[in-house]
Amino acid sequence: MTDKIIKLGESILQHGKFNNRVYLMKLSKTDFPTIIDQTKNLAKKNGYTKVFAKVPKWAKSAFTDDGYVTEAIIPNFFAGEEDACFMSYYFDKLRTIQKSKLESEQIIGCAQKTQPINQPLKLTSNFSHVVLMPNDAEEMASIYQTVFETYPFSIFDPEYIRQTMQENIVYFGIRDQGKLVAVSSCEMDKKSRNVEMTDFATLLEYRSKGLASFLLSEMEREMIKEEIITAYTIARSTSYGMNISFAKHRYQYCGTLINNTNISGSIESMNVWYKAL
Question: Is residue 1 over pLDDT 90?
């Protein structure tokens, strides 16, 4: 069960009962400001409890006037010139209450005190890193199914993985003597010159070996080659490992999306981190 990705005018949205929300992923100026009412009407029609919108700063005041709250801001997100505002509108007050808020705040504080990495990371000789290809999709989907009970996008489906490889996503992996044990992806917006560092998954028996951190280093290296300016991630607010990994790589915390994403079996709050490459 996953949510649908659709177009309203020239804007791109995701919506469905799985995340119980409408997500305005890409706002086209040609649809502004009518898209504000359209997204809320879509949510009302389907009984969703949240609208989540990622919009340029120039649109922020109109969304704020309509009752949206700003939960995170990434500077210079759009082509290094315009900030991105992550904004939410709630139809149910219960969804505004952050579960595990104290734990999340402790994780953010701990991550921000973490010493940054100052030297290149290396793998031990039994490991090798690769850019993953379409014939790796079944193995990748198997890892995602093993690691995550639920996920907001269709990464359990090899065909979805292959399709996104042909579009805007580059997948990375680490193998242990041939066996795929860790994966991640770069979801690029080449026009806006930003990238989401996402879809990190490591098999349980290979955790605490720094594999996600190594992958992140390789991902950054490749994105710099692609002339990407801004990297960001949306990490589970209660995941010590991922929040600390990004902090170690000098990503900056810029906000928390409350009860935003269905991942690992329930809807969770997500922390936003960013870095200028």
Answer: no
How remote is the C-alpha of 82 from its chain's centroid?
A: 19
The domains found in the chain, sorted by start residue, are 4-96 (3.40.630.30), 101-276 (3.40.630.30)
Dist CA 58 CA 80 (whole Å): 14
Q: Is 260 exposed, middle or buried (0-12, 13-18, 19+ CB in 10 A)?
A: buried
Q: Where are the beta strands (DSSP E) in the chain?
A: 4-8, 11-16, 21-26, 50-56, 69-78, 82-90, 127-131, 169-176, 179-189, 194-202, 230-236, 252-263, 266-276
Alpha-carbon span 261 to 267, nearest angstrom: 5
The sign one gets for the Cα dihedral 5, 189, 131, 173 is negative
Find the DSSP H helices in the chain. Answer: 34-46, 60-65, 101-112, 137-147, 158-165, 211-225, 240-248
Is residue 15 predicted with pLDDT exceeding 80? yes
Percent of the chain with pLDDT over 70: 100
Count Cβ atoms within 10 A of the Cβ of residue 265 and give its class: 0-12 exposed, 13-18 middle, 19 or more buried: exposed
Residues 6+ apart with CB under 8 A from 54: 23, 24, 25, 26, 27, 84, 85, 86, 87
Report the mean per-residue pLDDT for the chain. Answer: 96
Evaluate if pTM is beyond 0.90. Answer: yes
Q: Taking the CA of residue 195 as centre, how many other CA atoms within 13 Å lie in the half-sphere pointing to its CB?
A: 29
C-alpha distances in Å from residue 219, one per residue of 90, 126, 170, 261, 274: 34, 20, 9, 23, 14
